[in-house]
Every structure is written in C-alpha cells, then in structure tokens.
Structure to design on (658 residues):
C-alpha cells in the first residue's frame, strides 16, 4: 500500500482499473473452472453410468448362459469410449471377472473388484472414475459391471482452459491498459493539467494562467473553482498594484512639493541674507564714520554704545555669511576628486593657530589620510569641526585636538577629537539642528550654523556624521563621505 | 441357473457338486429359455407351465430341482415325462431326448401347428426342423436356433438369446 501511495495519479488510475479487471476476470475464471470441472464430472458419470446400464442389461444372458465371449463382446462396445481404461463383468460374489475389457495390460490390473453392497454408484478417486452397476435377472442381482475411466480428459481440458485463461488475461491486461489510457484523458488528464498550472502559478507567480477543461463532474468543478480562485487573486493583485501606483504617485508628488518648497525656502533665505547685507553695511559704515568723525562729540557712554552696535553688526555679518555659506553648500555642484585630508587639516589648523596665536593647542593629525570628496566642501567641514574643537578647548588645560581615521585608514569614518568642554549626550540629537546651541554665548560664541552646514555637506557626499561626548570630557565627531555599501 | 451355479459353488463340502454336470446346465438353460421366449396368448392359457420331456429322461431329479419353487409366465411349472409325443402337444416347451433321434421328423410333425418350443438334445436338431438344439463346444454347453421354426410356431425369442446362439437358421433359409 505504501508503494501504491508513491505512484502518480496516472499510475494509480491505471493500476486500479487493471487490478479490478484482472481480479474480476480471475475470480470469474476460477468459478467457471470449478463449475466446468463439476459439470464435466457429472456429465461423465451420467454418460458412463448409462453405458454401464446398457452393458448390464446386455450382460444378463451371457451370464445366464455362461458365455464369456458374448460378455466380452458386450464390453467391447466401450472401446469407443476413450476415457474408459478397463471394464469387467463379475458374477455375483466372485472377485475374478467373468469377462474383461482393457485398453492395455496395466489398466487390466487396475480394475477393482465390485463393491458387493452397491447396485449403482460412481466413485471419483485419484484421477479415476469407477462406475458400478448391478446385473439383475428376475429381480435378483446375478452380477456386476465395473467400469474404470481415466479423468485424463478432464486434466487436459483444464490445462487447455488454464491456457485460454492466461491468454485472455494477457489480452485483457493490454486492453485494460489501453482503456485506462482513454480514462486518463477524462480523469487524470484534467488533474495533471491542474497540477501543472498550480506549480506554474507557485513557481512563476503568474496568476494569468488558467487550467483547461470544463467537465460537469467533480473534476470540472475543481478546475472551475481553481480558475475562479485565480481570477480572485488576479483581481486582488490588480487592486494592490493600483493602490501601490497611487501611493507612489502621491509620494512623488509630495516629494516634488517638498523639494520645491525647500528650494523656495533656500532661495528665500539666500535672498533675505543677501538683501540683509546692504542695510547692514550701511549701519556698519555709518557707525564707523560716526566713531571716526564724530568721536569728540560723543561721550564715553555714547562711544561704548556705538562700539556695541558695531560688534552686533559684525556678528550679524558673520551670521549672514554663515547662512549664505549654508545656502551655497546646498546649491553647489559636487566635484569629487582625491583629496589629501591630512594636508588640508594641517592648513586649517595652521590658520587657526595664526588667528589665535596666544593659545597653545596641540594638534595631532594622522599622516596619509585621503578621501574622494569635493575639496572646497571638505575644507568647510574641517574648518568647522577643527574650529569648534579649537573653540571648546579654550578653557581646558593642555588642549589637544586629534584628526584621524578609524580602522587605520581602511575606509573607516574620519574623526576629530578634542579634550574640551564636551556635551551632554542627552542633547546629542540637537547638535546638528540650525541655531541650536548647547553652550552659553558668553562661554563659547557661535552662530549655531556650523554643524548644520557640516551635516549638509556630509549628507551631500552620501555620508553620515555623529558625535560622542560627555560634559567636561571632550567630544569626538565622526563622519563618512561615502554611502554605505 | 446362476443361482444354481452359485449354490453349487457355495457348497465346497460336496466335491461331487463342485462343477455342474452337463444336464444340470441344460436344465438351467431350459428355465432361462422359458424366460426369454414369449408365447402367443392362446397357447399360454393353461393353469401350469408345462415342460414335456419326450423319450428317455436324461435329467432325473436334476430338472425337478432346477424348476423347484419357480414360476414361468406367472404359473407353477409341471415337468411332464412321456414317450407319446401327442401328450406333449399342449405343453409350452418340449425337450426331445437323444433317444428320439431315429424318428425325429415324426415327433416334430406331431408338435407342428401348435406353439411348443422344441429343444433337442442331439446334433443337427435345428437343421432337422427343431427350434433350439443343444451342442457341446469345447466341453461347454451351447445351442443353435432355427428362427424360421420359432416364428412358424408364433413364438417370439428375445434377441438376447439369439445373440448367444452358435448358429442361427434365419427366415429365408
């Protein structure tokens, strides 16, 4: 049974039809064989019984008149009966036959003596039929006829019959195979087609295929239902596709809107910053004129206020410069090439030292650093990061700034580390927001634009920037300039 | 006859009777003949079935024993011994002994016209106008049949008997 379960539907159907037809045929053949054998025996017993009866009536006078020759002649009629091997006429009570017919000497020896009690009987035993009839005269038994016949004919007949059955079995086997092929077209055909379609659907995710066939039986229903299921899936898929398309279009539209708004905002802030410069220059210029030409007309307090005005304009000018720089960073085309980061950092550090010659800051720059980046923008990054480090180490003793690359130059993030004021990691996310400042202006002055600019440059390179630090223990800024693979 | 033979063989204590004598056999045959012959109705009307022994009686008590307690045509059997053939004319069966050989034609002529089955204990009995003639063949008792005479006497003899005859003289000749 396990072997049967492993077969394909096609094989199963064929096996079932062949097995059932073979079983029916074999059982019918067996029943008929038994029936035929029984009938044959009955007919044989009846025929030989009749013959024996005739002989027994013809044997009366030979027995009465003691005529062995006539008795033998009477028995000679059995010659035509091919199954009869031997026959004998016995006087009542005698074991030796009065007359004998035998087909050959061996058969003669096999002739049994009559059973004294029996008037008429037929006995089948070991391939032989023994018929006995009484010879009667005047109502008394005067002798017996014993006929011994061979069942060889039955054997031969059964052999022939078995041969015919085998031939018929073989022919039926072939016929059943042929018929099951036809049945296959109506049963296993649709199933196989359905299986093929199902596997195509599951492997190629193609829901547009349909199973063929529309019978009115359960298979037809199965195929129809399967196809309806595919219709359903396809419809769902179309809806999903449509919904996704809608979503994409909406996202695109939003993105476009956002980009436009962003551009507009940038253009706006650029033009605002730009336009702010002219009045600022006027304030700066005229306050300068006031200080130089009308210094005497002012008292100390007036000059002090005027100095404050001038400082404020200076600071505002820086702010505007930074904002314009930020805007420029957003507009400028990226022009990447190999940049000697170590040299660039060295130049930035030297400039810082020149501007603030009173401070003694140890700057350690790892040699041989290089990056594939826009040199102008990278310079802005380093200026801001080193500038910050310089600035926030202002109150530290033994200020030290390190520039290097993680993983020893093997494509790791660059870092700028200082041992300055540091910051509280709780506010780390505010570091890169515009105008967000973690320190009082009185402690460390700044515009709050620098790190925003740095982050935008890094982002434009496809990189990332992040910071670590603790209050009073310095800060480390790390950045990459390539998109992560 | 068979019973007789069987009885004879069943008596091994009497060696003299171990094998039946010719006349014991012939007596038994007479009974058997009676069983296989049919007489016309008018010839079988008497109260007894009469077997006449014409001439010298070769049987003695043997024949009485052979018919003892038996019936033919449903009648008891009478054994009638006679030397006058006319006394046999109303018998159903006449055994003509060897002593009558010399004047056989007269004997047969006397029985002609009736329905008497004639059985002769002599050679060429059937050729001489008798119906059934005993003869010995290889020391076995056999018989010949003159069917023409049988039919003239309006007797019907069973083919079972005719089949066993050593010689059958047919109608034509």
């Amino acid at each position: 049974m396990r072997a049967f379960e492993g077969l394909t539907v096609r094989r199963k159907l064929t096996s079932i039809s062949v097995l059932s037809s073979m079983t029916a045929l074999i059982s019918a053949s067996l029943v008929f064989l038994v029936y035929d054998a029984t009938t044959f025996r009955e007919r044989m017993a009846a025929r030989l019984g009749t013959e024996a009866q005739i002989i027994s009536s013809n044997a009366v006078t030979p027995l009465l008149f003691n005529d062995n020759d006539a008795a033998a002649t009477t028995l000679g009629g059995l010659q035509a009966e091919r199954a009869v091997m031997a026959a004998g006429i016995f006087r009542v009570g005698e074991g030796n036959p009065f007359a004998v017919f035998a087909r050959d000497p061996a058969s003669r020896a096999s002739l049994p003596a009559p059973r004294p009690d029996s008037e008429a009987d037929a006995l089948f035993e070991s391939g032989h039929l023994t018929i006995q009839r009484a010879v009667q005269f005047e109502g008394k038994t005067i002798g017996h006829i014993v006929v011994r016949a061979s069942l060889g004919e039955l054997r031969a007949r059964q052999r022939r019959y078995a041969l015919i059955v085998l031939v018929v079995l073989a022919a039926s086997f072939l016929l059943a195979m042929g018929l099951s092929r036809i049945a296959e077209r109506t049963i296993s055909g649709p199933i196989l087609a359905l299986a093929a379609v199902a596997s195509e659907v599951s492997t190629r995710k193609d829901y547009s295929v349909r199973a063929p066939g529309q019978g009115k039986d359960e298979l037809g229903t199965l195929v129809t239902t399967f196809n309806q299921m595919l219709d359903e899936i396809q419809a769902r898929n179309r809806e999903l596709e449509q919904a996704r398309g809608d979503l994409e279009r909406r996202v695109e539209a939003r993105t476009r809107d956002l980009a436009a708004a962003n551009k507009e905002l940038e253009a706006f802030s650029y033009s605002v910053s730009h336009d702010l410069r002219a009045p600022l220059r006027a304030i700066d210029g005229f306050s300068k004129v006031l200080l130089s030409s009308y210094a005497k007309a002012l008292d100390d307090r007036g000059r002090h206020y005027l100095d404050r005005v001038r400082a404020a304009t200076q600071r505002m000018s820086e702010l505007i410069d930074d904002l314009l720089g930020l805007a420029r960073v957003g507009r400028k085309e990226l022009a990447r090439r190999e940049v000697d980061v170590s040299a660039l950092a060295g130049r930035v550090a030297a400039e810082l030292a020149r501007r603030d010659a009173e401070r003694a800051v140890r700057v350690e720059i790892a040699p041989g650093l290089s990056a594939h980046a826009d040199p102008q923008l990278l310079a802005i990054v380093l200026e801001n990061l080193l500038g910050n480090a310089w600035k926030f180490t202002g109150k530290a003793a033994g200020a030290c700034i390190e520039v290097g690359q993680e993983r020893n130059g093997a494509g790791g993030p660059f870092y700028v580390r200082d041992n300055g004021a540091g910051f509280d990691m709780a506010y780390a996310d505010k570091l890169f927001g515009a105008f967000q400042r973690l320190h009082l202006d009185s402690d460390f002055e700044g515009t709050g634009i620098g790190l925003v600019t740095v982050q935008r440059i890094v982002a434009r390179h496809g990189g990332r920037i992040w910071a670590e630090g603790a209050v009073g223990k310095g800060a480390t800024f790390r950045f990459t300039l390539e998109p992560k693979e | 006859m068979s019973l007789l033979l069987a009885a004879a063989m069943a008596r091994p204590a009497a060696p003299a009777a171990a094998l039946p004598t010719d006349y014991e056999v012939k007596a038994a045959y007479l009974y058997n003949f009676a069983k296989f012959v049919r007489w016309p109705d008018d010839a079988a009307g008497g109260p007894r079935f009469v077997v006449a022994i014409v001439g010298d009686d070769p049987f003695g008590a043997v024949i009485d024993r052979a018919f003892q307690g038996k019936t033919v045509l449903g009648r008891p059997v009478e054994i009638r011994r006679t030397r006058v053939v006319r006394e046999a004319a109303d018998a159903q069966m006449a055994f003509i002994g060897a002593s009558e050989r010399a004047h056989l034609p007269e004997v047969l002529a006397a029985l002609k016209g009736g329905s008497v089955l004639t059985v002769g204990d002599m050679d060429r009995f059937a050729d001489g106008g008798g119906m059934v003639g005993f003869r010995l063949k290889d020391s076995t008792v056999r018989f010949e049949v003159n069917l023409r005479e049988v039919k003239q006497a309006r007797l019907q003899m069973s083919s079972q008997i005719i089949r066993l005859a050593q010689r059958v003289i047919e109608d034509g000749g």
